[in-house]
Write a structure and sequence with these properties.
alpha+beta; two-stranded antiparallel sheet
Length: 80
């Protein structure tokens, strides 16, 4: 192989590797600085510990265990 062909192959390999790393970073959630903070509360029906984010306060949802309706409480009422 000539030196020029070797350089082209190395450049292609570097691009493929960089693309794979970029894909992996994006798939695992990226390089976010605003990592989500989770709060917890107990389901009023089955008492299972559920987690939620601050932006969910006041919204209704469904318990992942008993499928009962839940309303996400204020952060001040969260349990750990």
């Amino acid at each position: 192989m000539s030196g020029e062909t070797t350089l082209v192959l190395l450049a292609v390999a570097a691009l493929v590797l960089a693309g794979g790393v970029a894909y992996w970073v994006v798939r695992r959630g990226g390089l976010r600085r605003d990592a989500a903070t989770f709060h917890h509360f107990r389901c009023p029906n089955c008492r299972r510990r559920l987690r939620y984010q601050s932006r969910q306060v006041g919204h209704t949802g469904q318990c992942s265990h008993c499928r009962g309706p839940v309303t996400f409480p204020p952060v001040s009422q969260s349990v750990d």
